[in-house]
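Input.
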Amino acid sequence: MSTMQTELIIVSEYCHKCHIEPSFIEMLEEGGLINVHTEGGEHYLLLSELPNVERYSRMYYDLSINMEGIDAIHHLLERMEDMRHEMRSLRKQLLLYRELDSFNQSLRFFRMFMPLFYNTIYVQISSR
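Output.
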C-alpha cells in the first residue's frame, strides 16, 4: 500500500486492496466513527484508524450490520471502556481507603497502649 507518510494511507488504495467500497469509508466518516484527512484532493486514513476501519468493515460486510447498528455498537463499546476506567479508578480509591483504615486502626491501637508503655517505662526509671 502506498503511503504519503508512514502514518497516512491512501483511502482508494486501501479500499481496492481490502475489497471494500470507498463509500463505506465515507459513511464511517460522516457518522463520526473515523477521521479521514484530505490533502490535494486525495483522501487519507491515519494508520491508527485501521483497527477501527477493519472492525467496522467486518461488522458491515461479514455480519451485515447496518451503519446505525455499527454506530450503536460503537457507542456501547465506548461506554463499556469508560466504565472500565471508572471501575479501575474506584478500585484504586477503595484500596487507598482500606490502607488508610488499616493505618488508622494501627494508630488507634498504638494510642491505646502508648500510655501503658510510658507508665511502665516511667515506673521502671523512677524506681531506680
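Residues 27 and 72 are 14 Å apart (CA to CA).
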